[in-house]
Amino acid sequence: MSTEHPSPTEPGSPASASADEAPATRSTGSGSAKDPLRGSRTSGIWSATVALIVVLILLAVFILQNTQRVEVSYFGWTGQAPLSATLLIAAAGGALLVASAGALRILQLRRRVKKDRKRR
């Protein structure tokens, strides 16, 4: 018999395992088997740290390339500020608006779910 393709009767071949037996290397779908390649909390933190470092490097390049001063007027306040600082403050303000709108929507949905659970 060839060693490249095991016959169905050889041990370890997929056909030799019975229907109620799962091979040790195959996941059963219940999540109880440990998958050595599954991401852990530590690997997630490591990935987030690397992503943050990349973002900070890109941000530093942005700030260093946009140092010219621009005139800024906001609700009667007028002044000059570096272009990079002006754009970063505007972006942070926009992100804060989006985050607060998202948080309000999440609170609204939680209240609706809580109200629906009380009805049951």
UniProtKB/TrEMBL annotation:
Bias type Low complexity, positions: 12-24
Matches recorded under InterPro entries: LapA_dom (IPR010445)
GO cellular component, one term: plasma membrane
Transmembrane segments: 44-65, 85-107
Annotated Pfam families: LapA_dom
Region (Disordered): 1-40
Presence of keyword Hydrolase: no
Signal peptide per UniProt: none
Start and end residues of each Lipopolysaccharide assembly protein A domain: 65-119
Keywords tagged on the record: Cell membrane, Membrane, Transmembrane, Transmembrane helix
Domain of life: Bacteria
Name by which UniProt lists this protein: Putative integral membrane protein
Organism, scientific name: Nocardioides aurantiacus
